[in-house]
Predict the structure.
Amino acid sequence: MVDTPGTGDDGTRDVLDQLAEHALGHLFSAALRTAVSCRIADRLAAGPRTAGQLAELTDTHAGHLRRVLRYLATRGIFREDATGAFHLTPLGDALRTDAPNSLHEGVLLLTDPMFQRTSASLEETVRKAGPSFERIFGKPFYAHVADDPELRELFDKGMASLSGQIDTVIAGTYPFPEKGTVVDVGGGRGGLLRAVLRERPGLTGILFDQSAAVSTHLLAEDDAVQGRWRADSGDFFTEVPEGADIYVLKHVLHNWPEDACLRILRNCRAAMAPDARLLIVDPVLPGGNAPHLGKTLDVAMSAILDGQERTEDEFSALLTVAGLRLTRILPTEMFTSIVEAEAA
Ligand SMILES: C[S@@+](CC[C@H](N)C(=O)[O-])C[C@H]1O[C@@H](n2cnc3c(N)ncnc32)[C@H](O)[C@@H]1O
């Protein structure tokens, strides 16, 4: 018997509706990108507006804009009332450019045409077991980003936007020591390091990433952390700063296949002070069929970077081969967890 949860009285229509909505998923992404590019959320911050008013403010076509907003309202991005005015919802509000932890830049990154093209070639990744990104753009993802300053800025700002809320949660969830040094390896613009240093006034920190990411870091913006950080640029496949007490790899290992992860982990292992801890911040994939953002990101990683999300067993095995031992996993309220390890 076929296992078909969710079919209604008219099972055929329900199946058609569901499959057609799934098949048109790219349209939802495009509609979201359109609303974000037109900064619709910013225009609704002062109160509800009709599509006509929004079209005037954004130099768009009222009829077409209304259809896109009505579609987005079916999934809670905005809300249309009986008078035809659109309102902000919690999801829409997070798209305001001045929202705390705004996701404006993050959604612009995730919906960028470079990723849409990569997704459209997903079948190629599945058939050839390699990232379609490389075939389309002629080089691996980070080499492509490094060669294009505008793309580098889009990526670094997008990652910082997607990380804002997570960084605060990680800094509040892990019992960071009162004293010592934390290195954020592949730490991007330094949002997590800033959150950790704010949380622990006795800690010092090192931000470590490629020079283009480090050069636009956020650490100088915060008086509360001044005098307690340094920003180093380098290549984590060669070496990482030595002698620190905590090494963090946040959303780094999921970019890479096993051999590359082992090189990064072994470099961390070689640099760690005695009794140091390594923290991998990545989704830990649950079993079963329940939706989980990690399962979605896992497919994206396969097409863009030859990376993957991992289960607890997969993290444990990877750490063991690198001379480390998984000590515990701290789940967070978000899709990502903290995998703690020490030298074996
Ligand atoms: C997915 S981003 C995560 C950034 C940050 N940890 C966060 O969670 O927002 C991965 C980071 O790894 C950095 N990276 C990639 N290759 C690197 C290398 N060879 N050496 C150092 N950093 C590298 C990228 O520049 C990028 O900032």
About this structure: The chain has two domains: 11-99, 167-343. The chain has a mean pLDDT of 95. The pocket of S-adenosylmethionine is lined by residues 142, 159, 163, 186-188, 209-210, 213, 235-237, 250-252, 255 (CB under 6 Å). The domain at 167-343 is CATH 3.40.50.150 (Rossmann fold).
